[in-house]
Amino acid sequence: MEIIRTVDQLRERVDAQRAAGREVGLVPTMGALHEGHISLVERARRENDFVVVSVFVNPTQFNNATDLATYPRTEEADCEKLAAAGVDVAFIPTVDEMYPAPDERVFDLGEVAEVMEGPMRPGHFNGVAQVVSKLFMFARPTRAYFGEKDFQQIAVIRRMVELEGFDIEIVDCPIKRADDGLALSSRNVRLTPEQRAVAPMIHRILAESVAMAPGKSVAEVKKSVIDAINAVDHMEVEYYEIVHPLTMQPVNDWKDNPVGCITVYCGDVRLIDNIKYRTQE
Asked: How far is Cα 93 from Cα 100, in angstroms, rounded to an integer?
């Protein structure tokens, strides 16, 4: 595996691959890699001739300076995992390399960015669009891979691809979970033992709520989930919305197989998860 730190070098490598008729897969990450990331890498490896993984903690998508400062950075361990997974290039740039000048672009992301994470984290999705669009311009991949844990983010990236006219296939991949059901996240390492013990209740309660639909209303299911999680020590729901899987808009019925998206504070660690309500074939 080659470690590349400059945009020019990355462009040189991927341009040579495309010139040879090879397909390029890109997995954008912020590092602190876990099995969820590696599952994306493994799929990219299966479906492409050449695989690039970016490792970059993007400052423009953090609206909380403490969250940015405490985000785990484990470059050496990340590189070992990527090499073992058969990655061809690890792109690990500095902030100055990615942003030689301030990125003033504002993306018209529309309704998919106006709910849930949008108002909770002002500017977050615009920062995501900034960095992912840069990675797409630099790597020009055939396909790019994203985990469904960040369900709303995938909708935002699809919108950005539409706006920018990228000819890139966006591949969304299933959530990877620990044996006890907790969605894998780089932030999980910040949980205390007591918090880590109760955090799997998020997925357990979400999964149990699927059996309630469509027999109960959307509002009843939402209230049941929120009340059950808030009753668990160390946990408080920031929001729980049941939304259309493409528009991200809240729904009032069970048509179109909606998705429940949740954010929970477990202590001071912000955890996200989601569940699919498959009520129609």
From this structure: 11
Is-catalytic flag, 37? yes
Catalytic residue among 34, 37, 203, 234: 37
pLDDT digits (tens, 9 = 90+) for 242-261: 999 999 999 999 999 999 99
Return the C-alpha torsion angle 184, 122, 160, 101, nearest 10: -100
Does pLDDT of 43 surpass 90?
yes
186-275 is classed CATH 3.40.605.10: no
pLDDT digits (tens, 9 = 90+) for 131-185: 999 999 999 999 999 999 999 999 999 999 999 999 999 999 999 999 999 999 9
The correct answer on CATH 3.40.50.12160 for the domain covering 2-173 is no
Phi, psi of 9 (to 5 degrees): -65, -45
Residue ranges covered by each domain of the chain: 2-173, 186-275
